[in-house]
Design a protein that fits this description.
The chain is mainly beta. The protein has a single domain, classed as Nucleoside Triphosphate Pyrophosphohydrolase, CATH 3.90.79. About 10% of the residues lie in helices and about 35% in strands. Strands 1, 2, 3, 4, 5, 6, 7, 8 and 9 form a nine-stranded mixed sheet that branches. Strand 2 and strand 3 form a beta hairpin. The protein is globular, with a radius of gyration of 17 Å. The site of ligand LXYW25GO has 16 residues, from strand 2 and strand 6. One of its GO terms (biological process) is DNA protection.
Length: about 210
């Protein structure tokens, strides 16, 4: 399927090139009334990526980037830096990587998530109440001058223990191609299953914050 119609919920000012879509593509996108703003930040360099194992709250038991709600008065970039520091103990210069819109049928609100990445960090990565940090091999080649033997045995990104559509956009984040997308989910017991999704690559510049 190469559906070129961009779903509601995605910033219509972005110039997007179709990347991937799937699921129940004949069904309509679910209507939503409220949107809440979130962030998600990933540190990735030299062939490795830092993920956190979520120990509590929404997404418990999954690996993800570091993030949470944008608080009143914050920009998404400020919220992303704060959440990264609170949950991992480190600071980093974040660059915007993409924008995602997620909705689960019957939920009170849709998630608008600004995704960030960093090539380096300062401080000591620390386990918090919310996240247990773990490095994974990103699959991208290391630069010769930075090869660290201790990284050679890192496990691959654990997509089976992540939100199901992450596998579509994490490679875009790693290769620094700006992206935007929407995924609708349905609740399946305690889990969420993707119902319908659409992702595009930003071809005409990305948001700065
Ligand atoms: C497909 O859906 C999702 N995929 C991915 N990769 N990440 C998602 C998805 N839906 C939500 N998220 C992210 C967005 C945030 O980074 C967290 C949820 O934030 P949380 O509920 O932990 O927010 P906090 O402000 O930290 O909450 P507390 O009140 O617990 O501090 O998941």
């Amino acid at each position: 399927m190469t559906d070129t119609s961009i779903p509601p919920g995605i910033d219509s000012t972005l110039s997007l090139q179709y990347h991937a879509s799937g699921g129940n593509d004949k069904s309509e996108w679910a209507p939503y009334t409220q949107v809440k703003y979130y962030t998600n930040a990933f540190i990735a360099y030299d062939g490795k990526i830092l993920l956190g194992y979520k120990k509590r709250g929404f997404g418990m038991g999954k690996y993800n980037g570091y993030g949470g709600k944008v608080e009143p008065g914050e920009t998404p970039l400020q919220a992303a830096a704060r959440e990264l520091q609170e949950e991992s103990g480190v600071t980093a210069t974040l660059e915007h990587a993409g924008s995602l819109f997620f909705f689960t049928a019957g939920a009170e609100w849709a998630f608008q998530i600004e995704i960030y990445r960093a090539d380096s960090y300062e401080g000591t990565i620390t386990e918090s109440d919310e996240m247990r940090p773990e490095w994974f091999a990103s699959g991208l080649k290391k630069t010769a001058s930075h090869v660290d033997d201790s990284d050679l045995d890192l496990p691959p990104i654990p997509y089976v223990k992540m939100w199901e559509t992450d596998e579509i956009w994490i490679p875009l984040l790693l290769s620094k191609q700006p992206f935007a997308g929407r995924a609708d989910f349905i609740k399946d017991g305690d889990d969420f299953k993707p119902w319908k999704w659409w992702y595009g690559r930003v071809v005409d510049g990305a948001k700065e914050s």
